[in-house]
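G., the chain you wanted modeled:
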Amino acid sequence: MGTSKGYLPPTGYMWSETKRAVTNMAKNNFSGNSIGRAVSNFAKATKNNGFARGNKSSVGTVGSKAVGFIGLVRTIGLENALHEVGLSHLVGKSLQEIYFGLLDYFSEEANTLNQVIANQAMQELMAEIMVGVSEVEAFEQILSSLDGNIFLRDFLIKFVEVAFFTNFAEKINSLCKGIEETIKAQEQIKEFIRIQISNNYTIEDLKDIDWKGKSGKDFVEKKCEEVWEIFESWRDSNE
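Predicted structure as tokens:
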């Protein structure tokens, strides 16, 4: 994950504190507490800057489309779900065509950094789901078996990862001594983000949500805000 070119990051004292916290991760061998302080400062700084608010809106659009489609596959099958969302042209196509067609359907037009981050988060999650899948039937079976709550949680995990590394990938790379150390640091940061969200994410009833309407987008935005709050309220474990 790299930094988006042409992007001017936020400024101000909270952002300066975040950059110092990122530097301190390397000084502390990317310990859990040092990562926690960096991600927590990042959450506070981006919320103060308005970035979190914009990202929340983009995540709401992308996430609600994907969760809604997965629910349709579970209830009426892949072919009928494609017809239902206006993707009839993908019926009978190859797995690759269906996969990329769905990614295009889930994604927003990438006019802003927020939209780019939300789209990339969905692409990374779907790529993980597709590992080892070579047939349309297997793809349908996987989508049918997905739990909408878990899928949404994993999407928000990816979203936080992409947002953080979009801002700090190059800095982290410069602080590490070689590619192996960089990869290890990235994995430690991702693991911290994953554990914090997984341990604090609230599972809710999705069955009465209209994913085609505003309520679906509003629900995903609410869950996105809760995820930001997990990191805003993070405290050192004093290990």
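Residues 74 and 214 are 22 Å apart (CA to CA).

Shout if anything looks off.
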